[in-house]
Amino acid sequence: MSKKTNNYNYDLIVIGSGAGGSAAATIAAQKGKRVAIIEQETFGGESPNWGDVPTKSLLHAAHIYSQAKDGERFGIRPSMLGYNFHALQNWKNLAIKRTGAGGNQKYYQNHGITTIKGRAHFISPQEISVSKRHISSEKFLIATGSTWENPNIVGIETIQHYTPKTILSLTRPPKSLCVIGSDSTAIELAQLYAIFGTKVCIFEIAGRILPKEDSEVSQMMHRVLTDQYGITIFTSSKVVHVQKDSLNKRITYIRGGQEHSIKVNELLVTTERQPMVDIGLENAGVDYSPKGIEVNNFLQTTNKNIFAAGDVLGRDSLTHSALLESRVAVHNMYSRNKITPDYTGTPRATFTFPGIASVGLSEDDCRRRDLNFKTGLAPLSMVGRSNTSDFKDGFVKIITDNKNAVIGATIIAPHAGEMIHELALAIKHSLTAADIANTPHAFLTWSEAIRIAASKIK
Asked: What is the pTM assigned to this prediction?
């Protein structure tokens, strides 16, 4: 270690213990570096504590309950079926504990990493203040993530409402719930509470729900959510005002140029996320805006000793993308051979039932880029599994370029999140539709639909 490095308290300080920070901290410690990790809230960050893990554990239980309620056609008697919401919360907490990441400060300490609880603030390019202490480091990784912000709705500051971070703290399902927004997280939570008896409505300012997904996904999920789960969906609708109305909330919205209002028990806002950049970056010589920290292709900020990863970059980040960026950032700190994060073949998944998964380009993406492309589509009804499971709401769509190389895919099916990786691998390694079609797929699996879709592309 250089004499200069010894002048600092640490070789690396990681600000944020979520996906964007944890991998880098662990890797640097394994390299023998003196590492500290700073966390303002709960160690482990969003994914294990109030994001992926608790949401998906409750969705898993909800889907079991929903399928059992609908099991009479298989000879299952659901008349005595019920649920205990307190026990469901206990299951959620157990799932968080089992990950080993949720709230686990000792995990980092066991890896020789110093853990500091508090809010970090740069006071110079190589020094921060935290918990009334000043500490210095040769290098920093900023992985502060993002936070849910209130949208521009009159009255939103005056009433109690929930975000995806706080909604799972409810001790019982509300009688009615208004969800503002319809991205993956919003749709997951809407279906979750609808399954447990909440009357749910969704407001989306765009012309369709899940606007970032394939339009056929939006159409099918709209029908599934309304017909099977009783969810009311308002598209092309803008919520403009919210106010307290006795024990309820009155939601005023504009649709088709007309103003309307409804009353609900609870309100969930899922539309606005802001990178957490209020940490004195100007004192560190780091360029940023309210939309995120600016980095080069190597995830290096305008200060060569400070890197950034995850949601704080202001991108549409996924947990697995943040982990990738964390590994890339720490590699570039300590290696002359710099690398860039390769997002090729990064899948996206929504854990509804049926599940939604996509990778690469959608048809809309191809049209916006004026690309020539081909598509192959296989409805789930084309595979034998749809008969044995009595389920037909879904499809596999594969998109190729003119040379039949796979450039995108969308799946809506049970276990879509597991199925998508075959197509992610195809994109990553420039495989063709024929490569997939000629690969044997196990009979009576949903994945047979992938082979059929690929075989339709000539």
From this structure: 0.94
